[in-house]
Amino acid sequence: MNKLLLPLLLLPFLLHAQDIQRYQKEVETIQKNNDSIWDATKPTLVFTGSSSVRMWKDVQQRFPEYQILNNGFGGSQFSDLQHFLDELILDYDPVKVFIYEGDNDISAKKRPRAILKLSEEILHTLQQQRPQMEIVLISAKPSLSRWHLRRKYKRLNRKLSRLAAKTDGVEFVDVWTPMLNNRKVMDDIFIEDGLHMNKKGYDIWQQTLKDYINLNTNLN
């Protein structure tokens, strides 16, 4: 094999290993924080996924009747979550988990079909390990900075919605539509980067998700 070709072939694997190492430290920080707040005797709801979850700092305060762990890790994709399913979800034996991934997958130019395959694998693993656990897939959100990718996001959301519809124990919640005004994304629900949400954005998420938090969840 050409000596110059081998490093090029290895480059994607090396970059992935570096990403996992970066997330390893963040995941360890999440676990350490949870050690100080998590009560294993109480039913637990886990929120995980990319930065839209990670930056939802007051999710516990918005739903005070439940014990909620925010295990979001910024910049993550479905493949990263797949690597840390134990550390971010399964180790806490939640009654329900909310997953927000796909936003960064599309931005990274992954095809919706490939993203769907990963999400199917994740759902299979979670249901094999925790058959009674309920799963909610949160749709990709619209944003000002990624509005040019809206067709791909809408295609992914349709695929995730169909996946949830045919999978027992899995729900799909649409946060895309409530964040639109006359078919365009609202411009006052984001911070300066046009990607991450401000309080108004999370108010929409709270209103949209509240019924899914209550849905079929037996916390007695």
TrEMBL record:
- State if Metal-binding is listed as a keyword: no
Which spans are transmembrane here?
A: none
Q: Which UniProt keywords apply?
A: Signal
Record domain SGNH hydrolase-type esterase: where: 35-204
Q: Which Pfam families match?
A: Lipase_GDSL_2
Q: Which domain of life is it from?
A: Bacteria
Question: Where in the sequence is the signal peptide annotated?
Answer: 1-17
Q: What is an example of a GO molecular function annotated in this UniProt entry?
A: hydrolase activity, acting on ester bonds
Q: What is this protein called?
A: G-D-S-L family lipolytic protein
